[in-house]
Amino acid sequence: MHFTGRGVLVDIEGTTSAVAYVYDVMFPFARKGIASYVAQHWDDDALASVREQFAADAGRDLATPDELTAEALRLMDGDVKATGLKTLQGLVWEAGFHSGELQAHVFADVPPALTAWREAGLDVRVYSSGSIHAQRLFFGHTEAGDLLSYFSGHYDTTTGPKREAASYTAIANAWGLAPAEVLFLSDITEELNAARAAGMQTALVVRPGNAAASPIEPPHETIESFEQITH
Ligand SMILES: CSCCC(=O)C(=O)COP(=O)(O)O
Ligand SMILES: [Mg+2]
């Protein structure tokens, strides 16, 4: 596809990176580490906002490390993209990325595309349910090296849910671009529908291991590699 805008907004799981890496490596790492992280950091500032977010989402105070951990694991069982859970996962992943136990997967076409897009003067940003802290850890520690400098902005669920048009309007406003100047890349039709409703250009990214995307009329343009996007 030929893209004539100024910004590219990328999803992570199923778009830049394999769903299996997130589900089979990162989520189990978080699941294993949450109880001890919460117990050790219960009184830390970093956990204070997590505790508030969990309490607000649950509608009740989670007064002990065990209660918060149980709620986090319950949310993880349902793959709920709650802001508090995503912030907590990012804090647990931090040690793994810093030690080298976690090294983020990116598809082989991603690093050369990021280079080409930068050379073409495009502004590339990330929108993921993973917290901004987790996104920065992820792209700072990939199998292909540190890719963080290719991204000039990050958005997460603190801007809004990924399936709501208002989130994409807010991102474009924060970015200082008209929505039509932004191409959003994702594996999830409902996210693309929301971006399209906000006026963004869209492309459905089909990667090995992705679930079949929900059909929509008119369909989103489909790509299997970032190489297919020229500018
Ligand atoms: C920072 S990588 C972890 C991604 C994550 O936690 C997740 O839920 C996947 O969300 P995405 O919006 O990238 O599909
Ligand atoms: Mg995705």
From TrEMBL:
Catalytic activity: 5-methylsulfanyl-2,3-dioxopentyl phosphate + H2O = 1,2-dihydroxy-5-(methylsulfanyl)pent-1-en-3-one + phosphate
Names of required cofactors: Mg(2+)
Function: Bifunctional enzyme that catalyzes the enolization of 2,3-diketo-5-methylthiopentyl-1-phosphate (DK-MTP-1-P) into the intermediate 2-hydroxy-3-keto-5-methylthiopentenyl-1-phosphate (HK-MTPenyl-1-P), which is then dephosphorylated to form the acireductone 1,2-dihydroxy-3-keto-5-methylthiopentene (DHK-MTPene).
Native source species: Botrimarina mediterranea
Example GO BP: L-methionine salvage from methylthioadenosine
UniProt keyword Hydrolase, yes or no: yes
Annotated NCBIfam families: enolase-ppase
EC number(s) stated in the UniProt entry for this protein: 3.1.3.77
Cofactor note: Binds 1 Mg(2+) ion per subunit.
Any Pfam family the entry gives: Hydrolase
The keyword Methyltransferase belongs to this UniProt entry's keyword annotation: no
Family in the record: Belongs to the HAD-like hydrolase superfamily. MasA/MtnC family.
GO terms assigned for molecular function: 2,3-diketo-5-methylthiopentyl-1-phosphate enolase activity; 2-hydroxy-3-keto-5-methylthiopentenyl-1-phosphate phosphatase activity; acireductone synthase activity; magnesium ion binding
Pathway involvement of the protein, from the record: Amino-acid biosynthesis; L-methionine biosynthesis via salvage pathway; L-methionine from S-methyl-5-thio-alpha-D-ribose 1-phosphate: step 3/6; Amino-acid biosynthesis; L-methionine biosynthesis via salvage pathway; L-methionine from S-methyl-5-thio-alpha-D-ribose 1-phosphate: step 4/6
Subunit structure: Monomer.
Enzyme superclass (EC): hydrolase
UniProt protein name: Enolase-phosphatase E1
Key words of the record: Amino-acid biosynthesis, Hydrolase, Magnesium, Metal-binding, Methionine biosynthesis
